[in-house]
Amino acid sequence: MTTLVLLRHGQSQWNLEDRFTGWVDVDLSAAGEAEARRGGELIAAAGLEFDRAYASVLTRAIRTADLALCAAGQLWIPLEKSWRLNERHYGGLTGLNKTETAAKHGAEQVMIWRRSYDVSPPPLAPGGPFHFADDRRYAGVEVPAVETLKSTLERVRPYWEDAIAPRLSAGERLLIAAHGNSLRAIVKLLFDVSDAAIPGVEIPTGNPLVIELDRARRPAAARYLDAARAETLPAA
User: Fold this and answer.
1) CB neighbours of 13 closer than 8 A, spacing ≥ 6?
2) Is 87 a catalytic residue?
3) How far, in Å, CA of 3 to CA of 76, rounded?
């Protein structure tokens, strides 16, 4: 058995402002910093130790990893970063206020854009403040104009299979600090969640999800460390 912990980043400044964020590099709010530290405290209280950690290349995920590991007394472990763990790209919704967008397009349509597995919002128009192709973090990457959860999973999968899964097979204990949709993609892969069921899977911010994996990397058990803020999990 080995242990994988998934940790969704704490509240960001744009979460606080109720804006679609996606690939925009927004920092944590003060509340988000507290969530990340609390996650680390829960990890320490549970006696969990890690050999390696992973994060996206977005500040809110990296700082969540750092704050949680510091609170857990494990800031020294290696932290690897990959754009493949980024949040889903929200395309033309990027930067918009969620409440105002729902008033304009209808709450049902916005919920479909946000939660469905393979229905995308409108793509991001070229240029403008949220054009990421010139960001050197993505040198050599074909930056998408929009993503669904399905396409997010498709770009998470190679990193999972090539970088993360072999470490788990070698018995390493891992922490992944990332985003709601990139972590939902990993949950879908691990638990074989159906396309129809995955829109109902929610991962709370700052609440470590501990997954015990058997030798075949199949989930044998899973639990949230903060039971009061736990969400329903796929069957392990």
Assistant:
1) 26, 27, 28, 29
2) yes
3) 19
List the domain boundaries for the chain: 2-229
Model pLDDT for residues 40-89, shown as the tens digit of each residue: 999 999 999 999 999 999 999 999 999 999 999 999 999 999 999 999 99
The number of angstroms, rounded, from the C-alpha of 141 to the middle of its chain's C-alpha atoms is: 19
CA distance readout (Å), 165 to 7, 49, 57, 59, 171: 17, 18, 19, 24, 10
31 is written with which tokens?
């509340």
Question: How is residue 80 annotated by DSSP?
Answer: E
**Cα gap 64→206, rounded to integer Å:** 8
| Long-range contacts at 111-116 (CB < 8 A, ≥ 24 apart) | 115/199, 116/148, 116/149, 116/199
Place of tokens 């959860």: 149
Active-site entry in 9, 89, 147, 179: 9
Rounded Cα gap, residues 160 and 4, in angstroms: 12
Q: Collapsing DSSP states into helix, strand and coil, what is residue 99? A: helix
Q: Is 9 a catalytic residue?
A: yes
Cα angle at 144 between 140 and 147, to 5 degrees?
140
* Matching CATH number, 2-229, of 3.30.70.120, 3.30.465.10, 3.60.15.10, 3.40.50.1240: 3.40.50.1240
Catalytic member of 33, 35, 87, 147: 87
Look up residue 198 and give its two tokens. 């995955």
Closest CA to 66 of 33, 112, 95, 98: 33
Report if pTM > 0.90.
Answer: yes
